[in-house]
Amino acid sequence: MKNVDDLIASAAELADRGLSKGEIADELNVSRETASWLVDRSGASSPEQTDDAGGTSGPQDIHVDWSAIGRDSKRMGYIAHAMADLLQKEGEDVDLTIGIEKAGAPLATVVARELDTDLGSYAPAKHQWDEGDIDELGGSFSRNFAQIRDRECYVVDDTVTSGTTMTETIDAIREEGGEPVACVVIVDKQGLEDIDGVPVYSLIDVVGVGRES
Ligand SMILES: O=P(O)(O)OC[C@H]1O[C@H](OP(=O)(O)OP(=O)(O)O)[C@H](O)[C@@H]1O
């Protein structure tokens, strides 16, 4: 996805398929505010045509396209080296890295290799969502990869947008008896220091300028 016109076209297509602005936000990896703005700009009708969240000046959110890294294993290796370096500030002898599907899984693979840890994979609840109340669904750890087994672990994803996915993953690891020691992402759009007491590291923090809060 290269520019805002592509995003607007994608938002229009998803809105035409009946997805809500929240679902469009998840699909396009942007905030709900931005999804609302994209749908409004496209002229498509959405199930929730409510506020003009972005106004005429556009939304505050940004879309992060890191495909120049993701499509090249050598570049992924360099990024993993940097992400692993951030993680090494926390924990000693952590031997498990959990990637959040989908985009976090390949990143976690290269980070785990860099740190010489086992590799686990978590599918958040939203990936199982089809219809109905997402709160009634749970995420799951893939049986094809390492299990938590009461271990300390690192958590890897590509982005934090609202923080919902990372928060869910931290909860799921704790429910399995594990202890998340630190999280790392390429881009943190919230600029978070921690989530539920777990430090969040990012290569890039996105800071809104001129926001009131
Ligand atoms: O902080 P949040 O608001 O929860 O958003 C961040 C999450 O959204 C994206 O996942 P997406 O559902 O787009 O799946 P993907 O990994 O397949 O891109 C991204 O990879 C994070 O997991």
UniProtKB/TrEMBL annotation:
Cited Gene3D superfamilies: 3.40.50.2020, Homeodomain-like
SUPFAM superfamilies, A to Z: PRTase-like
Keyword DNA-binding: yes
Pfam name, any one: Pribosyltran
Keywords (A to Z) from UniProt: DNA-binding, Glycosyltransferase, Transcription, Transcription regulation, Transferase
GO BP, one annotated term: regulation of gene expression
GO MF term list: DNA binding; orotate phosphoribosyltransferase activity
Disordered, as annotated region: 38-63
Annotated ranges, domain Phosphoribosyltransferase: 66-191
UniProt keyword Cell membrane, yes or no: no
Top-level taxon of origin: Archaea
Free-text comment about domains: Contains an N-terminal DNA-binding winged helix-turn-helix domain and a C-terminal regulatory domain (or effector binding domain) resembling phosphoribosyltransferase (PRT) domain.
Function noted in UniProt: DNA-binding transcriptional regulator that functions as a regulator of central sugar catabolic pathways.
Family: Belongs to the purine/pyrimidine phosphoribosyltransferase family. GfcR subfamily.
Protein name: Transcriptional regulator GfcR
Organism: Halogeometricum rufum
Name of the encoding gene: gfcR
